[in-house]
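Thread: Modeling a multi-component assembly for a lab meeting

Hi all, long-time lurker, first post. My supervisor asked me to bring a structural picture of a complex we are working on to next week's group meeting, and I have zero experience with this. I have the sequence lines for every component (1430 residues in total). Could someone generate the structure of the whole assembly? Inputs are pasted exactly as I received them:
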Amino acid sequence: MIGGLFIYNHKGEVLISRVYRDDIGRNAVDAFRVNVIHARQQVRSPVTNIARTSFFHVKRSNIWLAAVTKQNVNAAMVFEFLYKMCDVMAAYFGKISEENIKNNFVLIYELLDEILDFGYPQNSETGALKTFITQQGIKGQHQTKEEQSQITSQVTGQIGWRREGIKYRRNELFLDVLESVNLLMSPQGQVLSAHVSGRVVMKSYLSGMPECKFGMNDKIVIDKQGKGGASDDAGKSELGGSGKQSIAIDDCTFHQCVRLSKFDSERSISFIPPDGEYELMRYRTTKDIILPFRVIPLVREVGRTKLEVKVVIKSNFKPSLLAQKIEVRIPTPLNTSGVQVICMKGKAKYKASENAIVWKIKRMAGMKESQISAEIELLPTNDKKKWARPPISMNFEVPFAPSGLKVRYLKVFESKLNYSDHDVIKWVRYIGRSGIYETRC
Amino acid sequence: MPAVSKGDGMRGLAVFISDIRNCKSKEAEIKRINKELANIRSKFKGDKALDGYSKKKYVCKLLFIFLLGHDIDFGHMEAVNLLSSNKYTEKQIGYLFISVLVNSNSELIRLINNAIKNDLSSRNPTFMCLALHCIANVGSREMAEAFAGEIPRILVAGDTMDSVKQSAALCLLRLYKTSPDLVLMGEWTSRVVHLLNDQHMGVVTAAISLITCLSQKNPDEFKTCVSLAVSRLSRIVSSASTDLQDYTYYFVPAPWLSCKLLRLLQCYPPPEDGAVKGRLVECLETILNKAQEPPKSKKVQHSNAKNAILFEAIALIIHYDSEPNLLVRACNQLGQFLQHRETNLRYLALESMCTLASSEFSHEAVKTHIETVINALKTERDVSVRQRAADLLYAMCDRSNAKQIVAEMLSYLETADYSIREEMVLKVAILAEKYAVDYSWYVDTILNLIRIAGDYVSEEVWYRVIQIVINRDDVQGYAAKTVFEALQAPACHENMVKVGGYILGEFGNLIAGDPRSSPLVQFNLLHSKFHLCSVPTRALLLSAYIKFINLFPETKTTIQEVLRCDSQIRNSDVELQQRAVEYLKLSSIASTDVLATVLEEMPPFPERESSILAKLKKKKGPGAVSNELEEGKREGGELNGAGERPGDSSAIGASNASTPSPSADLLGLRSAAPVSAAPPSAGSLLVDVFSEAGPAAPAASVNDDGFLRDLEPPTESSDSLLAEGSGDSDSAPPSVVSEDPAPPLPESDELLNKFVCKNNGVLFENQLLQIGIKSEYRQNLGRMYLFYGNKTSVQFVSFTTTVSCPGELQSHLNVQLKPVDPLVEGGAQVQQVINIECITDFSEAPILNIKFRYGGALQNLSLKLPVTINKFFQPTEMASNDFFQRWKQLSQPQQEAQKIFKANHAMDTEVIKAKLLGLGTALLDKVDPNPENFVCAGVIQTKSQQVGCLLRLEPNAQAQPGEQMYRLTLRSSKDTVSKRLCDLLAEQF
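Re: Modeling a multi-component assembly
Sure thing. I ran the full set together rather than chain by chain. Output:
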């Protein structure tokens, strides 16, 4: 039961203000600005309680979204809604920025009316929303009565995320496995913590009301099948170095279209997909992660005024694959007065405003290594505090899933229309990105 | 800063600042700053030397970043380099950075000091000023160490520029304030004082600040400044407004300088030299005259400046307090301000008048403004001004106008601001008491006070009214009647119920003759309030009821019924329940004679300082209360208290009241408090009233001793045996440890001496145990309360105490010990009662042996109980010839004991008096022809005989240089008594 929703710019000026319930007064807008945005100390908690009113906020670049309530709501629900709200806005007008919000404020109010009713979240499916909230002015003239009633029956019906009567000449679907890998490693190369959070995003252009079944190398399913028949050679890994066949998924969540009862009983993922792009599932794994890069730091302090840094990165995947957008960030001490960098590959630069050396490499194949060495000159200070040596962080993108997840099948059944699973063109893509990928030095 | 040339504009700095200002978010700002810092670092690190301009620019940027709240850990060296520049702007920035950023423990201090030294010795006045300002701004001890010697030289040097002199004076002032021990004026003193004669007014102004501060610390050295200040002041005051050019402010010549001069003069008494004094008086008169002149300007600055001088002059007049003429004029002048439009002026006038009122010369003059002040109290809009008006009314009050003022304050109280109500209440209470000619007026006033502002009437106020009513027979009847009437109001404040309960309980019989206030009516009236009151009040009312039973036997059945009902006898509050049970039992068992003794009327309280005054003082802090308090009386009060450790007595008092004896029979009453004084067991509430009332209050407590002892079941001996047996059963056989009391502690003789002249205090203390003592003596009987406090968190087991009387003492002293609980919990305190009967005179002290187990280890402790023969003194008052007649009668040599001994303590008459009173004798005034000598008389009461004692103490302060001697002579009818007393007393002085 969200009482109200406010959007602020970085200065704390209110861009959007929508109050759903009477218990939220106008002063709540100011309370959040004064106590959070303009707070003397940075407010780190996403939930703030001011005068028995709870404020839940998320920040997208310089924009603050705050949901307000006086009741004891499920905070996870509120945040889920806020994230959904961000997704919806991004789907309508792209990047969430002050200018975009100002330009689309009518649309935003319209959306807010639709996805939140008396503080209760409603249908926030972009595809469905786009059928009746458009950016091209009023569509009413062009919509027939049937179309309008169809929208109504769809939105209020059992399968609210898909309308009937969709027809494509080519039945096609795209499956993206997007993963971000997080790591903290000790200077000696010991993994202190590592986990992968992944998403399966699907873009479907299928006719009718197809029934889909999705299969992956989930350990529980594989083991169940493994008992039945002999070991399935077809599932052998074609990615990375690990020869394992199944992965242990720690937890996962699904899009509303997935039949959870079936997942619970048979562990099979079956669903009627929405039309267009959507996120089928989210998951997290912590075991047997393939770490695409290894960072080997070497920091030597030469006297009080000089620091020598050498960093080696090794790519740890099949040589045929290419990693992209590699960026290594080496922090420098606060009293750095000058930096000389030599690197064999890519470009490196000392960025004073961020107190770091940033080393960028466009592409790098698997099983290679590259090195950078830097000489950092220091200004002697009368501050006795030692430099805290923040970790070296890294960004990259690799064309495989570091968790080892593989799509085993995605079957499409449409009984009413005359196309079968074989007629559907399917595309699968794996992208592994870095999350917080740090090595201590 | 001189005109900025184009090159000094520091464009880079301006750009940087505007960049920062334009940053959209905090992150952007931090990024920009990081970038700039990196740039500056690389510039400072760079091989090629920076020129002065860029150095200045970067240091400026660093300073700006620091002031934005970021840490700066470099650049100090560059700033120090700037100090040696020859350009003003660079030097200035360098000094600015150092004043803001350099902390005293930096290693750069040496370099900085060097640079400052160079600038100080340079001939350039601007540089000297910069250096001096830096020293003053930093003001650290290191700076003071380095330059404290140098600056006075600059200050008094003949060739120093005026502006430098100004800076030097203020710099020295600052160093003196931070480290006075380092700034030694010595030889410079007279030359600094002569700065008052300087031509340049700025120098004089700066120098006065310095001299004022210095002369407050050592007034004698700077005495000469008085005449110089007076002559300077007279020159300024008599000058025409145009004479001083720059230093004339809105037609007032040098107002700040005048104020400072007047303030300097307030550090000293009036000048002795007639000429100087005449000149000063003339000045003050001129200032007062000028105040009467029509203003030369309508601007507020003009009147402000003029009034500043005037108020400072009045403050000086009040400080001197010797010129009746001036005081009266000042008072009249202030009287005019009382009705001024300006609120500030009215405030200041009221405040100054408050001090004027305490001067004997102007008191009458102040009193003439009473109507205006009362009006101010009623009509002022600002509460702080009203507060001052109330203060002034309090200060100007005396016997002649007390009734009017008290009445006005009372009527104002109804509408008074909440913040000042409590203070007002205290003031009314004090005035009413102080100037009460007729005590019925006093009673009326206080009861009115409780009626009007009951919530703000503190405990002290109603304690006081009860003390006064009890001590004055003439108002008791009236008080009872008034209270009775006041209680008839349907809603009355709880404090009123308390006063009513107490007074009717004591003096209800005085109005019982009237059928309208018959005993039963009184009781019903009180009881109708009972259920609306808080627990302490109800406890007090219960005590009043039992007193009613004594006063009016006809109410007995009614009251017993009330006590017997479940809401009393089974009350959830222990205190109430205990009272109900005990009072019910007392009323049903005891005969009327016993009741009459136990519930006797309260004895009068000893006269002492009103506790309300102390409360008012505490509230306002020292100095705020008018000086009219009778100083002697207050000192006396403090002295009496000083005999005891202040903390101890109250702690014991509180613990005494808060440990209602678990054996809740009648004996519990005895341990809690004297029976006759019913309210004392109301706990800490009443501690203040009774804490010091020790010797006089519990008249009945000892008298009924025998009766109570009869009631007590004789189980104590078997109890203690049982406890001991069970406690020790698992360890060594009890006979081994318990038969062997430790020898008395070596210091126990000292402990004994400590208690010769006092009855309460801490007897003994170590890491485990604290023993407090409280004792009372009456005739040949005494009772001692011992409080054993467990200071650890572990319980003591098999805690036993015994008292033994070694040798002959057994037949001289009868000591009875009540058993004590064998378990003492960690942090708890247990109480033990010892009854002592003196059979005949004695010289040894009984030995108290304490045994307990602490964590398995047996602790064995022996102490001497502080029971000495002088405790059984009864004071005897006698006239001079009577005394000497008896003195001569006791002239046999064995009857006299004499000692001549050195004083161990300073000879303070008040302390000696207090000690002699503590001894128990009567201190006889005006008996001895030599007023230095002290003469006392008393009778020692023992069971077998009474021994009269006479005492003479002759201090000799000049016996030998550096040594003070006493001669102590004691004569008594029994030789052993004389000797023992003489020995005891010789240790005390």
